[in-house]
Automatic annotation (TrEMBL):
Keyword ATP-binding assigned: no
Key word Transmembrane helix present: yes
Provenance organism: Coprococcus eutactus
Protein's name in the database: DUF1189 domain-containing protein
Keyword tags: Membrane, Transmembrane, Transmembrane helix
Length: 302
């Protein structure tokens, strides 16, 4: 009994284990990425993206920040190092100045309520130098959070009003804040970890789409016919390996995240080119044959 073309294509599909192996083999044999794109299943690629994102942010966010802040560590650090302070409707008050950074230069904290404006020279300098992965600055009017040059702000007045709605106090002193930190440090870290994972997955899908467009341009230049689905699956595997490697380097070795993320895209684009080129070289006629049939040309008469 003659088998249908659909049944033959189903037999050509590779399994999840083979797709996962090809993601690592592709480092030295880029054509393996294109094999995943041509013969792999989309849900396999999605599962790889999900799994790699969970593990990546476990090592780059949860473990380092939980070690610093989780399970009461933040409250103990604040209690031991910071003098008494107050938060009221008028803003923050802290006598003196407090500075802290961890040994890996990942996090820097500055408390100086004499600073009244987020445009102060010292804050601008911290933002531009980009020495630390994360910077927290508490001024008299706001809490500033800077991560890789991006700054967000929480107004002291807004924070006081939010706390006052729950705890109903005219002002909040050191012990009040410590009690709140002890209650919420781990839940907040967990929520931030989940947010990082979700954000990382979305970013991977989006950047992989751009890399896939590069793949379509490459295939067009080589006069090959490759579907968007095939190059997109290949791009997901390429980025799922190289993005974690470069992000781990930026977290623990060289905190130049913008430079490394640009390098990540360049590496992914280069691997996409090599994947298509070498796959076509090892499977001559497969991609060109598809191009011929889809372009409307007829087979020669025998």
């Amino acid at each position: 009994m003659k088998r249908s073309e659909k049944e033959i294509k189903l037999d050509e599909k590779i399994g999840f284990g083979c797709s996962l192996k090809n993601m690592f083999v592709g480092v030295v044999k880029p054509e393996a990425y294109m094999k995943n794109g041509q013969s792999g299943k989309t849900w396999h690629a999605v599962m790889v993206v999900l799994g790699m994102s969970i593990m990546l942010y476990l090592f780059t966010f949860w473990l380092p920040y939980n070690k610093l802040f989780g399970n009461g560590r933040l409250a103990r650090t604040v209690d031991e190092a910071v003098k008494d302070f107050a938060l009221s409707n008028d803003g923050f008050y802290y006598e003196g100045r407090y500075q802290w950074s961890d040994d890996e230069n990942m996090t820097y904290i500055l408390v100086d309520t004499s600073i009244k404006d987020s445009s102060a020279k010292e804050i601008e300098s911290l933002r531009k130098e980009n020495v630390y992965t994360t910077v927290f600055v508490v001024t008299g009017a706001e809490i500033l959070s800077m991560e890789n040059g991006r700054m967000s702000t929480i107004k002291a007045k807004d924070l006081y009003e939010a706390l006052n709605e729950v705890y109903h106090a005219s002002s909040f002193g050191k012990q009040d804040i410590l009690d709140i930190i002890n209650k919420w440090d781990t839940p907040v870290l967990t929520a931030l970890y989940i947010g990082n994972v979700i954000g990382g997955i979305i970013k991977t899908f989006w950047v992989s789409f751009i890399v896939a467009i590069v793949g379509l341009i490459v295939s067009s230049a080589l006069k090959l016919k490759v579907s968007l689905g095939a190059v997109y699956r290949a791009a997901l595997y390429i980025r799922s390996l190289w993005y974690p490697i470069l992000l781990l380097i930026s977290t623990y070795v060289w905190p130049a995240k913008k430079t490394l993320m640009t390098l990540t895209f360049m590496i992914c684009a280069a691997y996409m080119f090599m994947a298509i080129y070498r796959y076509n070289a090892q499977n001559p006629g497969e991609l060109r044959g598809k191009a011929t049939m889809l372009s409307g040309s007829q087979p020669p008469n025998l």
